[in-house]
Amino acid sequence: MEDEDRQKTLDLVKELVHRLLSHNPAAPNNAARNPNPTDLNNSFRYAVRILSSRLTPSIAPDAAAIAESIKRRLATQGKSSQALSFADLYNKLASKTGAGSINNKWAVLYLLKIVSEDRKVSQASHNFALHLPSLSLDDRELGGESRNFRRGEKGWEDGVLMVAKDPENLREIAFREFVNLAKEENDVSEEVLVRDVLYACQGIDGKYVKFDAGLDGYALPENLKVPRSTRTMVRKLCELGWLFRKVRGYITDSMDSFPTEDVGTVGQALCAALQDELSEYYKLLAVLEAQAMNPIPLVSGSAISLNYLSLRRLSVWFVEPMVKMRLMAVLVDTCKVLKGGAMAGSIHLHAQHGDPLVHEFMKSLLRRVCSPLFEMVRRWVLEGELEDIFSEFFIVSETKELESNVSQKGKESLWREGYRLHSMMLPSFISQSLAQRILRTGKSINFLRVCCDDRGWADAATEAAAAAGTSTRRGSLGYGETDALENLVAEAAKRIDKHLLDVMYSRYKFKEHCLAIKRYLLLGQGDFVQYLMDSIGEELSEPASTISSFKLAGFLESAIRSSNAQYDDRDILDRVRVNMMVQSTGDRGWDVFSLEYDASVPLNTVFTESVMAEYRRIFNFLWKLRRVEHALIGAWKTMKPNCITSNSFVKLQGSVKSQLLLTLRQCQVLWNEMNHFVANLQYYIMFEVLEVSWSKFSDEMEAAKDLDDLLAAHEKYLNSIIEKSLLGERSRPLYKSLFVLFDLILRYRGQVDRLYEGIFELQARNAVSLPSKDKRKSSKQTSKRPEPPGSWVGEGRKALTQRAGEFLQNMGKELGAIAKEYTSLLEVFLSELPVQQHINLKFLLFRLDFTEFYSRLHPAK
């Protein structure tokens, strides 16, 4: 059957050659009708050799493209009608299918096109046979057409004809010589090396290409005979296998160690993303392996078929996988010691690349890797939940099981110490300011839930998600959506912080509690303080060890009921309590008495133990100042002119009388100086310090947008009072000088009481010689006063005069010593005021020395 097909083909070729030679326009008429048998035989042999060669045209087998080329050529030659006729004929040819149709249509069209071009080029030739130049053949090869055709199927041994450009077949001869030489130099064929390289790229040792631990890579054995260029090419291609081993080893180690080691959810996401990339890589290798087993399809059946893949073609296929595998290997080396946000930040830095391929690859990888991280952000911002088992998040909880800790101390530290930023886990694509807002938003939700027992934050979070255009579902945020993340955090922070402040102001009455602390601990409620000072003064003069705190609490309650403080909220009044500080040897009640304010949850977030300790310091200072003022007022009540002091001058000798006047004057002048100092100091503290600081604090409370702003405003308010009231570290020397002055004024009050007790005794002695009417008045005024030991009453007039003179002289000396010491201490205090850094202390100096009396008194200083 095959012999019959071959014979039919030869007959058709011979008939075609005969027709071509019969229509040669250059031949004579008779020769055209009957071609020369020799030319016919040579041309036929030449045609058979062409058809039997393995040469193929250097174009793609596309029938439509060749038809379009022929039609375009006819159109450019001005043969439009012929172009239309050809297009119609081609459509009929292309539409014909089934039995009797031509399968290889493009080859027929290509042959017709080549023949047409050859005829145009050879119109000037006299011998048409020149269009089919023959190669010299031995006579043995001319024995029969069938034998020549069968031999041509296996390929001509004497060479292969190259159409038009290489009539001498030089390239084919050189190619065959190169192939023979390569076979002599190689112990292994290229097809085998390609197969081994594909194995090596999967981490598998091939027959020749194996992993060399010494070289840390895949290589050919040294004793294998291959060209150096082939060895180098194999080594370069097998780099992909080395990178593959590194990436696969990281994935295997990470997955095998989970969850015994802290691989983390971000590390798991990275392994999953790398595994997906390796899956795509496996698919590519599968395709290449399939191609390596298939030969290149050729048009000529007699041509030698080579494998589709060569080492050079493999290097082209490996360009993009090599780039991706190198990137993955770099990430593997970088991320071995990282986890969580630090890992995501490191990968993000590698994504900042100018190559679009690298950028897109890293971006797609980051979308997978950052998914757990963004889910943590979403849950923290919208739900206040911190699910960070492997410590990957950039927000760290310092208090374990905080929500179950119901102690006041635990809840007090929730806001300040409960959570903090972990800078090492903060990814580089999240700014520090955004991280702070994220931290504060989640803290606000936890503060509302744990400390305020409030659930209104859930509605605020839902509204924030709707306003930001996102949802509260998992996966609503991802890498590359930084604007959406910032928008969500901004909306959530605005709504949740506003709700938190509303809860603090309305439900827990934060402003009212601040005002209560100002009125009771900072002694802003004047009538309450005055009544408390009057009622508790005698009790506090006793030794501290003998004073009962319950009795003092009764005095406090009495002061509240007797002043306008009784109209305050009962919850606020119940928080004001008596606090007895730690006693020392010799302390009086004045030294250990203090008031405290009980701030419960959530107020203790602002009024912490350290803050209340500062308030106690301020109270002790203000209480000492009020005590000094109260002492001076008491001294004034004792010293003011009355009938007792007026009658004291009756029947006194001139020397005693002058001594008494001098002592009283000295006492009055010293009182005026002390009262001037205390009054101006108290005015400065109460108005220029407390009221001004409170006014600023009130404005900042109204402007606060979150709890951090509120805490900062209160801290600023408290620090302002401490610094302006001479209680700061920089004013410590001034503070000590001031308290020495206070102690001196209290000593002065004792001397005044002693002086006037002596005067009252003198009056009682003089009452003996008074008329009966005056005696009864004097007896009424003095009957209530007990007679101290060594009283002058009952002594003689001479002895009375002598004792009075000595007493007044001693009192004058003591008052003089107090005045001198006071002047010296006040001078030191005033000299230290100008060097203080706080500007308000300079206003205090101006108020104390507004007449420049002290400046003129000590000009040199």
Automatic annotation (TrEMBL):
Residues 194-505 form the Gamma tubulin complex component protein N-terminal domain. Its main location: cytoplasm. Residues 774-783 have a biased composition (Basic residues). GO terms for molecular function: gamma-tubulin binding; microtubule minus-end binding. It is found in: Cytoplasm, Cytoskeleton. Residues 771-795 are annotated as: Disordered. One of its GO terms (biological process) is spindle assembly. Keywords: Cytoplasm, Cytoskeleton, Microtubule. InterPro entries: GCP (IPR007259), GCP_C (IPR040457), GCP_C_sf (IPR042241), GCP_N (IPR041470). Pfam families: GCP_C_terminal, GCP_N_terminal. The keyword Cytoplasm applies. Residues 512-854 form the Gamma tubulin complex component C-terminal domain. GO terms for cellular component: gamma-tubulin complex; microtubule; spindle pole. Belongs to the TUBGCP family. This is Gamma-tubulin complex component. It comes from Linum trigynum.
